[in-house]
Design a protein that fits this description.
Elements: E1 5-11, H1 18-30, E2 36-43, H2 53-58, H3 60-73, E3 81-86, H4 101-106, E4 112-116, H5 128-142, E5 147-152, H6 155-164, E6 171-173, H7 187-194, E7 200-205, H8 214-221, E8 228-233, H9 244-254, E9 261-263, H10 272-278, E10 281-284, H11 293-300, E11 305-307, H12 311-319, E12 325-326, H13 332-343, H14 346-362, H15 365-386
Length: 387
């Protein structure tokens, strides 16, 4: 066996999404490590999410065969580790008649490491039959015998996998990496270009998703001073076929906040520093998170962040005290009051900025790449002993 590692990686690179950005940044750092000989991408398809049950059933066998063929590609070009970046929609969706993860994994003949970017969990209101179907998909995915190790970014997701039945020794918590920031343009120039002169700016960054709490931000804005503008710096996710994004625009209009809320849609990479430069406070009122690339970018630029008290945010705060301004509860009133307090305290804003930058320096993508390499090495060594 070669001393180096040749990776086949299943991920998305051709379409705008957080996992694409994540993969590109991680691979750049992995390629700097001398033990990595090559990284070959097997592209996750962008056209396998079927609009409805009838369409999914009609295409079921063809889609399943397609994923078997994609799985077989992971074995090519001398690869000795397969790394799968997992989101349900990469494999057709969450429902059993749409999801083809098991067929994909069954075609892979080399050890699989899977990074889990989401774990669908039933809510108390989920019907019993739907709970059973979701349990079936999760077990067939995360307990698949091809998988040697599962990487998650939060302790909460570790516990979720253990409840599904994954053995603790197969799970690794690797904290989400913080990318290196790009140089910031002059804020005064950007404010003038964007018509934000004399405005105080709140930003909720990333794709529009109901897990990110945009409604809390809108309702909080209604109780903040008139010189405060809210930016939604992200568009509708390409896999999102719901009415969520239009519903936010309706909510803004109903609250008569059209002049104070800006929908910036998807931001190309070169435009991100401009938005960061004019942001006074970043908002992260998420209802849940499995490790957020959006939050990672905010920390990379040292922005003061007001965040919801969910386990993933509490874990970050435990790593670096004071790097997030955690709410005591997730509500519009709590968010409004905290933002108002911070807008009136330059000292506290500076403390949050410094702590965010300290966290970013400590938890770089380089560190994540080194921890990921250690997992690859351990898998390879164990496979060698089992031969």
């Amino acid at each position: 066996m070669s001393a180096g590692l040749n990776l086949s990686v299943f991920t998305r690179t051709a379409q705008k999404c957080g996992v694409s950005d994540y993969s590109r940044t991680l691979h750049a750092e992995l390629e700097r490590l001398p033990e990595i000989e090559s990284i070959r991408i097997v592209e996750a398809p962008a056209d396998v999410v079927r609009a409805g049950t009838l369409s999914a059933l009609e295409h079921y066998h063809a889609d399943k065969q397609r994923f078997r063929e994609l799985g077989a590609k992971m074995n090519e070009a001398g690869a000795n580790i397969a790394h799968v970046q997992f989101q349900y929609f990469f494999f057709g969706g969450v429902a059993p008649h749409k999801n083809h993860t098991a067929a994909f994994l069954s075609a892979i003949r080399i050890p699989v490491v899977m990074t889990v970017h989401e774990i669908a969990s039933p809510s108390p209101r989920t019907p019993f039959a739907h709970r059973l179907l979701l349990q079936s998909v999760n077990r067939s995915t995360f307990l698949h015998p091809a998988i040697r190790r599962l990487i998650v970014h939060t302790e909460q997701d570790r516990r979720r996998l253990e409840r599904i039945g994954v053995k603790p020794q197969k799970i690794d918590v690797v904290l989400h990496g913080i990318p290196a920031p790009q140089p910031l343009p002059a804020p005064d120039v950007v404010r003038r270009e964007m018509g934000l002169e004399g405005r105080r700016v709140l930003t909720l960054f990333g794709f529009l998703s109901n897990k990110k709490g945009h409604a809390f931000a809108i309702n909080a804005l209604a109780g903040l001073p008139e010189d405060v503008t809210l930016l939604f710096a992200g568009g509708q996710h390409p896999d999102d076929h719901t009415d969520y994004a239009p519903s936010l625009r309706r909510l803004v209009s109903q609250a008569r906040l059209d002049s104070r809320v800006r929908f910036l849609d998807y931001l190309p990479e070169e435009r991100i520093p401009a938005v960061m430069s004019v942001t006074d406070i970043a908002l992260a009122p998420y209802s849940e998170s499995s490790g957020s690339g959006s939050l990672a970018l905010l920390m990379a630029y040292g922005l003061p962040i007001v965040a919801s008290p969910i386990p993933s945010h509490e874990q970050i705060e435990a790593e670096e005290k004071g790097c997030l301004s955690l709410l005591s509860e997730l509500s519009a009133d709590a968010l409004r009051d905290r933002v108002l307090s911070l807008l009136n305290s330059l000292h506290r804003l500076d403390e949050l900025k410094r702590a965010a930058l300290t966290y970013a320096e400590t938890h770089s993508y380089r560190r994540m790449a080194e921890e990921t390499l250690a997992i690859y090495r351990d898998v390879r060594d164990k496979e060698g002993r089992s031969l």
